[in-house]
Amino acid sequence: MVSGIERKKKKPHGRNPKEVPKPHKSFKKGRKDGSEKEDSKDLPSSLLIQDDDPDFPRGGVSLLSRDEVAEARAEGEAEFEREERQVGRKGKKDRRIRKPETQEDLGSLFAEGITGKLPRFANRITLKNVKPSMKFWGVVVEVNPKDLVISLPGGLKGFVHAEEISDVPIETEKDTETGIFGRVAHVCQLLPCVVVKVEEDKKDAKGSKRIWLSLKLSLVHKGLSLDAIQEGMVLSAQVKSVEDHGYILHFGPSAFSGFMPRKEDDGNIKTGQLLQCAVKSVDRSRSIVHLIANPELISKSFTKDIKGLSIDHLIPGMMVNARVTSILENGMMLSFLTYFTGTVDIFHLPSNFPTGQWKDEYSQNKKVVARILFIDPSTRAVGLTLNTELVLNKLPSINVKVGDIYDESRVVRVDKGGGLLIEIPSSPTPSPAYINISEISDEQVSKLEKKFKENSLLRVRILGFRYLEGVAIGTSKASAFEDSVFTHSDVKPGMKVNAKVVVVDSFGAIVQFSSGVKALCPLPHMSELEIVKPPKKFQVGAQLSFRVLGCKSKRITVTYKKTLVKSKLDTLASYADATEGLVTHGWISKIEKHGCFVKFYNGVQGFAPRSELDLQPGIEAGSVYHVGQVVKCRIISYKPASKRMNISFVISPKRTPKGDIANVGTVVSAVVEHITPTAVIVNVNSSFKGAIYNEQLADYKDQASAFRDVLKPGYKFDQLIVIDIEGNSLILSAKHSFIHFASEIPSDISGIHSGSVVHGYISNIIETGCFVRFFGNLTGFCPKPIATDEQLEDLTDAFYTGQSVRSHVLNANAESGRIKLSLKQSLCSSSDVSFIRGYFLTEEEIATLQNSKGDQDWVKSFSIGSLVEAKVDTTREFGVVVSFKDHSNIVGFIANHQFGGKKLEEGSSVESVVLDVSRSDGLVDLSCKPELVRAASSAQKKKRRRNTTSDLELHQEVNAVVEIVKQNYLVVSIPGYSYTIGYACTMDYNLQKQPHKSYSPGQSVNAVVGALPSTDASKRLLLLLKALSDKSRDSSSKRAKKSNYKVGSVVEGEIVEIKPLELIVRLGAGLQGRVHITEVLEKSEDFVENPFGKYRIGQVLHAQIVAKADRAGKGGKANILELSVRPSLLKGEGEEIMPPASDFNFSIGDIVRGYVMKVDSEWARLTISRSVTAHIFILDTSSEPNKLENFQNLFKVGQAVNGQIISINNDKRSLRVKPLPPSTELTKISQVRKDDTNINGSDNLKKGDIVGGRIKKFLPGVGGVLVQVGPHLYGRVHYTELVDDWVPEPLTGFHEGQLVKTKILDISRSSEGTVHVDLSLRGSLLSNKPDFGM
Q1: Shortest CA distance to 806 belongs to which of 784, 791, 787, 783?
Q2: Residue 649 neighbours by CB under 8 Å, 6+ apart
Q3: What pLDDT sits at residue 853?
Q4: 918: Cβ contacts below 8 Å, ≥ 6 apart
Q5: Ranges of Basic and acidic residues compositional bias (predicted)?
Q6: What pLDDT does 293 receive?
Q7: Which of 463, 537, 780, 871 could disulfide-link to 819, CB 3.0 to 4.6 Å?
Q8: Strand partners, 579
Q9: Three-state SS for 940?
Q10: For residue 1011, what is the enclosing H or E element?
Q11: DSSP 3-state assignment of 97?
Q12: DSSP E strand boundaries for 284-430
C-alpha cells in the first residue's frame, strides 16, 4: 500500500503529527512485492519474518526507512483528523458509553492492532492480559522444595514446577531445603521466563488466577538461531556439564552450544545452574558460542541491530538503545533496534518518585537506555524499563519491611482513579510506595484528587512489594493498624487468633486472618477426638477461634482443639522457655512401649517415660492414651542445648516415705494378683504392686511364654529382682541371670567400667543398633557393626526385645551419660553355666505349676544315670516308646542310636540307663548302650550311684560324647569318669536367635565342668562347651592373623555365597574374601560358560590373595580381600601379581573375554578383570534389525562373551568391544589378524560394510535421513538412497528410532577432524553378507 501514499509532504490538520508518531497497520503490506523481497535476499531463511505477520505498535516491524516512516505517520495523522471532523461531536451519552473503552486501554496489550485510534496508555501487565507464550523478565523471590516463586512486572507472581525448571537433566539434591530448584536459581536472581499456563487458583477462595512459568531455555530462546547471536550479546545459559577446563552451556536450541572457561572466582557452579553470560566470540563452523560471565561487562552490553532481527529474537532483560517517540498518559512509547516500538510504564521511569509533572522531563526523540521487560508474541507488545538499577542489571533496592508502619509519609503524586505514590521516610534513603485506591480507606473513596494533595502526609503500613519496580505496596486503612496479625512475621507460636475458613479438604482446612494471611489447620487438629474427615463445624465462611501451633517460613499451622485453644496455662514454644516444674498442655505425637512423645508449640517435643504416664502396672500406654490426645504435663528435666526434655503426666506426685519401697537391684518375694496380656501383676510384701513383663519371666524366650501360660493368681515367686521403679510401682524380673548376677549389674553410670562384661537386656532395636538396659534407667547403645561377629543387615535377625544379653563395655562417658557397648559373642561369651542352670530351674518351676495336683514323686524313681526296667510298647521311625510298670502315666523313649546293637521288639523288656528327665512333658530319655549300662550297674552295686561325680572337679576340662541332641542343650557322657551323664548348653545369652553349631550323637566334644550335682540347685552335672568359650579366643586369634595376610599368600576359606560374578569366601570373623569370576580359569583355557559351576556353598577352598584388603560392604565396615583360585597361582607357576594400575595393557584389535555384568536398552557391560570393564553397543551386535530389537535378550548377567577391542578409554580403564560369534573357538580367535579389524577411528567401520543403524531424525526437504551407526557417530542417507525404485514418498515406512540395516557408501574425515559418513538403505545394496554379531 506504500505505492498509494504520495511522496510529497502534506500539512496535517489539527495537532502536529510529530507529537504522536504512530506506524500504520497497512504500512508493511505496500512493500510486500517490491522492496521486501529485495531487502531479504541476503538474510538467512531462519531469520526471515513471515509475510502475513501483522504489524502492531508494541513491537511491530516496519521495513520502511525512517524518512518514509515519518512521512507515512504524517499522512496517517491527517487522515485521522479528517475522520474526526466528519464524525463530529458526540453527545454526553455517547461519551459516557465510550469511557469504558479508555479504561479498557489500560488493561489491553492492543491485541486488535491499530484501527485508526492512537494509544493513550502504556501497556500495563495485569492478570487479565497475561497469557501463554508471553515472555517476562522476573526476579526469584522464593526457592522451596515444591516450586520456584518469581515476581513479575506489575507486582504479579508466577510459579515454576519442577518439570519446567530445565531442559538439562539435573540430579535432585536430597540433603538441601531447596532441592532441585536450589541448583538452578537463587533468591534475588534476575532471569527470563515464559508463561506456560494461567489457571484458576484452587487454593484461593476468591477464584483468582495463578500464573505457571517455565525457565526452559528452549522456550525462552524459541526462534533464536546461531546467525542472530553477535559478540557482546547477553544471553541466559544453563550449565549442561562441568568439565575440567570449563562449562558446557545449553541455550535451548540444540543446533548450537556454548562454552565458558573455568575461573578461580567462579564459585560453586553446578550442573543445571542458570547463568547470565556475555558472548565473547562465535565459532560458526563448529556451532559453539564462547561466553564470559563478567557482571560488569554484562551490565554494559547492548543488543546491536542486525539484519533480519524478528520479535522471536527479543529476550527479556536485553539492554537496548531507544528514543522517545511519544508521551502517553501513564508512560512513554519508545522505538528501538530500528524496527521495534515498546512502551514504558510510569513505574519504570528512571526517577523513583515521578511527580505529576514527570512528562516535562521527556521530549520527543530523546535518547534513553532501556531493558526489555516483557514481550507478547501474539500481539507484538513489548514492555520496557528505564529503572536505573534494572538498566544496570541490578535488582532495585527496597529499604522497608512488610508490616512496617510509617506515620509521616509524603504524597508525591495523585493518580486520578488509580492511587497515591508515597515517599516513605525509610533509612538510609527514602523508599517509594504505592497505595491503590482500594487500600486508601476502609470506606469508599471516589475523588482522590480532592481528598489528597501532593506533599500532604499520611500514615502508611507496608503490605508487600513490587520487586521489579522497586516500589513497596502500602495501605492507609485504619483497620490495617489494628490487627494483631498483619503479616507472617506478626504470627507467634501459641497466640490465639480468629480466622475465617476459606477451604475445607480431606487434609484439613485453610483459614484466613482478617489481614489476608492464611494458615493450615491439619485434620488431626480440627477436633479433640480422632477423626477421619473434617467436622461439620468447619464450613467455608465460618469464623472460628484458633491457636497458632507453629510458623516456619510462611507456613503457619493452627489448632482447633478446644483444650489447647481455651488453655490458661503457659504455652511452651521454645526449649529455652522450659523450666523444671512448669505445667503446660501438649498433645501426644507418638506412643511406644517405653513411653510417649508429646509435642508442644513451634516444634518443641518432650518424652514421658512409662514411669511418668500414671499407669497401673501391666497396663499398656496405647490402651489409655491415643495419638493426638491433649494432655496436661509437667517438666521434670530438660537440656536446651541438646533439645531434650523429660516430662510427666503426674502433675502432683505422691511422696513415698524412704525405706518403704524396695530399691532397684534388691531381691523380693511376691504373690501373683492377676495376669494381663503383657504382664503379670504381683503384690510385693503386701505393700506395693509390681509388674513382671512377659519377656522378664525367663532368660529363654520360649520358656517365658510357657511360664506365663501356667501362672495363676496366688502363685508365690520366692525370688524376684527389682529392675526399675515406675512411680509407686515396681518393675520386676524373674530371670535367673539377673537374680544370680544382681550385685554385678549397675544402676548408675559410675558402676560401668570400660572392658567389663555386664548382664542386661535388649530394650529397643533400631536400624543403626540396639539399646541395652541395665537396672533403673541406665541404658547403653550398641552400634550395628559391632553387635555381632558376622555382619547382618537387620539386627532383629540376631536379637529380640527383652532378650537377656552379656554386653562388653567399650567406653562410658559420665558427662554425656552415654555408654557404648558391643554384643559380639567373641567378646561376651559366658564363662560359667548360669544360662543352662536357669533353663533347668525354670523348667522345674513350670513343671511344678503344671502338675500342682499330680504325683511329683515319680521323678525320684528316675535319677540321672540310674538303671530302670522298661517295656517296649511301640516302634517309631526314630526309636522305640517304652512304658514303666510302676508309673503308667510316664513315657520313656530310646532313640535308634541308643539301642547299643540290641534288637528291641514290641512287648520285650529292656534294661536301660536314664539320660534325661522332662518333668513338664512326663518324658524319660533312655539308653541301652552296653558301656553305659555296665557303668550304671557297677555304680549301683557299689552303692555309689549318687557319688559317681566325686572324682570330677569344678573347672576341670573333660572329653565327652554326645548322647542326645535336644533343642537347647546336649546330653553327654564322660567315658573317662564312668560314663557320668552331663548337660551342656548349645547356645549362649547373645546367640539365642543366631545360628549356632550343630552336633550329632556320638560326636566327641571338649567341655569344662561348671557345676556339680551335689552343689548345684539343678541337681545336674553342668558343662560349658569349649566351642562357645573358645570362640572369643579364636576370634582374637583370627584378628591377630588378619595383619599377617599379605598379597601372594595362600589362605583357606569357606564359601558362604555364590553370586553371578563372584564367590564370597569367609576367612575369619569379620574377614571375607572375594573370588572374581575372571580369577577362576587360566587365560589359556577354553571358555567355560559357568566357571562357578563346580563350587558349592560350604565348600572349603584354597586361594591366593591378589590384592590388599579394601573396606567394603554396607557402610564400608567389612574387610574384603581379593582372591584368585587360578591353578597356576596356587602352584606358584603363575605370573607375578600386578597392581590394578599396571594391568591395563590392551591394544585396539586385541581379543578379550569377559562376563556380562549389566544390560540396559543400549549397552551391555562386561567385566574383563577385577578392575577392567568393557562395553558393547547395541549397533555393534548385528546388522539385522530383528536381532537389534532383541538386544536385551541376547545377554544375561554372568554370560561369557568374546569380543574384539575397537576403542580404549585409559582414564576410565574401560574398553569398547565388538562381540564375536559364540561359535568361534578361542584358538581361532587368537589367530584373527589386526589388519582385518578395519579400525580407523570411525567406530570400526569402513567403506562397503553393512551395519546396523537407528534412524535419528528426518532432514528438512529432500535432505534425507540421519542414521546413527555408533554411540556418537551418525551418517546421512540421501533422499535417493532410501529405496531402489521411484516412489512418490520414499520416507513412507520409516520412522524416528527405527532400527535398520544400512550400507556404508563412503567415510571421510574433514580437516577439522569431523567424520562424514554416507549411507544407503537400498535393498539391492544390502546383500546377504554374513552377520558376525551375536
Answers
A1: 787
A2: 596, 608, 612, 613, 614, 631, 632, 633, 634
A3: 63
A4: 843, 847, 924, 925
A5: 32-42, 65-76
A6: 87
A7: 780
A8: none
A9: helix
A10: strand 1004-1011
A11: helix
A12: 288-292, 319-328, 331-336, 340-345, 367-376, 381-385, 405-415, 419-424
176: which DSSP letter? S
Q: Report which of 776, 777, 763 is spatially closest to residue 823, judged by C-alpha positions.
A: 763
Residue 943: exposed, middle, or buried by beta-carbon count in 10 A (0-12, 13-18, 19+)?
A: exposed
Residue 181 sits at φ, ψ, to 5 deg, of -70, -30
Length of the chain: 1334
- DSSP summary character for residue 162: G
Q: How many CB atoms lie under 10 A from the CB of residue 1331?
A: 15
**For the residues 235-239, what does the mean pLDDT come to?**
90
Distance CA 1238, CA 1273 (A): 16
Smallest CA-to-CA distance from 477 within 518, 511, 514, 449 is with 514
Q: Output DSSP code: residue 986.
A: S
* Whole-number Å distance between alpha carbons of 1251 and 1242: 13
Whether the Cβ atoms of residue 649 and residue 608 lie closer than 8 Å to each other? yes
pLDDT at 1243 (0 to 100): 54
In this structure, which amino acid lies at residue 891?
V
Residue bearing cell 491433649 = 630
Q: What does the H/E/C string look like for 1265-1331?
A: EEEECCCCCEEEECHHHCCCCCCCCCCCCCCCCCEEEEEEEEEEECCCCCEEEEEECCCCCCCCCCC
C-alpha distances in angstroms, 107 versus 99, 115, 123?
A: 14, 17, 7
Residue pointed to by grid coordinates 513412507: 1292
State the DSSP H helix or E strand holding residue 840, giving kind and residue range, or none if neither.
Answer: helix 834-850
User: What is the rounded average pLDDT of the residues 775-782?
Assistant: 92
A 10 A CB-CB count for 1223 gives 6
Residue owning grid cell 483468582: 208
For residue 848, give the DSSP letter. Answer: H
Q: What is the dihedral of CA 957, 960, 962, 968, to 10 degrees?
A: -20
The DSSP 8-state label assigned to residue 443 in this structure reads S
Confidence of residue 889 (pLDDT cuts 50, 70, 90): confident
Is residue 454 within 8 Å of residue 414, measured between CB atoms?
yes
Mean pLDDT, range 545-553, rounded to an integer: 89
The C-alpha cell that represents 908 in the structure block: 520285650
Residue 428, preceding peptide bond in cis (omega within 30° of 0): yes
Cell numbers describing residue 542:
465460618
Give the Cα separation of 707 and 699 in Å (integer). 11
Answer yes or no: are the C-beta atoms of 224 and 251 closer than 8 Å.
yes
Least confident interval from 343-347, 782-786, 1217-1221? 1217-1221
- Please state the φ and ψ torsions of residue 332, each to the nearest 5 degrees: -140, 160
Q: Give Cα 1140 to chain centroid, integer Å.
A: 34
Q: Which ranges of 566-614 would DSSP assign to H, the alpha helix?
A: none
Set of cell numbers at residue 262: 573455568
> Grid coordinates standing for 439?
487500600
Among 394, 332, 398, 334, smallest CA distance to 360 is for: 332
Please say whether the beta carbons of 1285 and 1292 come within 8 A.
no
- Is the pLDDT at 418 greater than 90, yes or no? no
* Residue 948: per-residue pLDDT: 53
Look at residue 1030 in the predicted model and tell me its pLDDT.
56
For residue 1010, what are the contacts with CB-CB under 8 A and spacing of at least 6?
832, 833, 954, 955, 1022, 1023, 1024
Give 1036-1084 as a DSSP string.
Answer: HHHHHHHTT--TT-EEEEEEEEE-SSEEEEEEETTEEEEEEGGGSS-TT
Which among 320, 302, 310, 331 is positioned nearest to 377, based on CA atoms? 310
Contact, 1180 vs 1218, CB < 8 A?
yes
Of the listed ranges 123-137, 176-190, 713-727, the least confidently predicted one is: 176-190
Question: What is the full DSSP assignment across 403-427?
Answer: T-EEEEEEEEEEETTTEEEEEE--S
Residue 1258, all three cell numbers: 528426518
Residue type, 742: A
First to last CA, the chain: 70
